[in-house]
Every structure is written in structure tokens, then in C-alpha cells.
């Protein structure tokens, strides 16, 4: 079975676009993994539905993320902190789906290193 790949106007795949976006917003280079989840998100303020697709990504750096001008704050959070974060439940579900068994063990789709200090997720807000 084959897979169709959509590309943007510059010829980049969704995975490449995602990696570029993360780099622009955090100064982190990442390796994009598999699709974790997808769902429809309703933005009530503009009465618009958006189709969200989330990917598992592993940072290719051990540096702290840098706050971009597009966000108010950026942080690293352990899995136990995610349920209390102010974000749509779909993102929380994706984080849980892509989480390694332990913070020092990567998920089975990648052998990329995860941060061993319990802070393996960067979540711009």
C-alpha cells in the first residue's frame, strides 16, 4: 500500500513544515516522527473548525527552547503536569499517546534521546 504525500507551495512535506515551524518558534531542531492523532477543533471566537493533526517529534538538542514573538511563554513539562495545562484535550491526548514508557526511554518509533530530567515536552502557549 502506498501513501500520498501532500506538499506546500515550496515542495515541503507536512513533516518538513512541522519541523520548520518548531524551529522558528523554539529554536529547536527536531526529528518528526509518526502521526499520533487527529481531531476537529472548534474555535468559538471566530466560529471556525480546524482539522488538527499531531505528530510525535524528538528534539535534536538538549538546549532550552527559546520564546518566539508569537507566544507569551514557553516551558518544559513532565507528563504528570500536562493534564493541568491550558490547552485543548486533543493535544493532551496526543502527548499521552506519544509519551515514552519512562522519560529516559524513547517511544518505539524512534531511538532519539528524550530528556532524562522529566521535562521532555516543549509547549508554546
From TrEMBL:
<protein>
    <recommendedName>
        <fullName>Nudix hydrolase domain-containing protein</fullName>
    </recommendedName>
</protein>
<dbReference type="InterPro" id="IPR000086">
    <property type="entry name" value="NUDIX_hydrolase_dom"/>
</dbReference>
<feature type="domain" description="Nudix hydrolase">
    <location>
        <begin position="10"/>
        <end position="88"/>
    </location>
</feature>
<feature type="compositionally biased region" description="Polar residues">
    <location>
        <begin position="96"/>
        <end position="111"/>
    </location>
</feature>
<dbReference type="Pfam" id="PF00293">
    <property type="entry name" value="NUDIX"/>
</dbReference>
<dbReference type="InterPro" id="IPR015797">
    <property type="entry name" value="NUDIX_hydrolase-like_dom_sf"/>
</dbReference>
<feature type="region of interest" description="Disordered">
    <location>
        <begin position="89"/>
        <end position="125"/>
    </location>
</feature>
Amino acid at each position: 500500500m502506498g501513501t500520498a504525500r501532500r506538499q506546500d507551495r515550496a515542495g515541503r512535506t507536512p513533516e518538513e513544515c512541522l519541523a520548520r515551524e518548531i524551529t522558528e518558534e523554539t529554536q529547536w531542531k527536531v526529528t518528526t516522527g509518526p502521526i499520533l492523532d487527529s481531531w476537529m477543533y472548534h474555535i468559538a471566537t471566530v466560529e471556525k473548525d480546524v482539522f488538527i493533526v499531531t505528530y510525535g517529534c524528538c528534539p535534536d538538542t538538549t538546549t532550552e527552547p527559546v520564546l518566539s514573538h508569537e507566544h507569551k511563554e514557553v516551558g518544559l513539562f513532565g507528563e504528570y503536569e500536562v493534564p493541568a495545562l491550558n490547552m485543548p484535550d486533543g493535544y493532551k491526548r496526543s502527548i499521552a499517546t506519544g509519551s515514552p514508557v519512562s522519560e529516559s526511554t524513547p517511544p518505539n518509533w524512534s531511538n532519539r534521546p528524550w530528556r532524562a530530567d522529566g521535562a521532555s515536552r516543549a509547549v508554546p502557549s
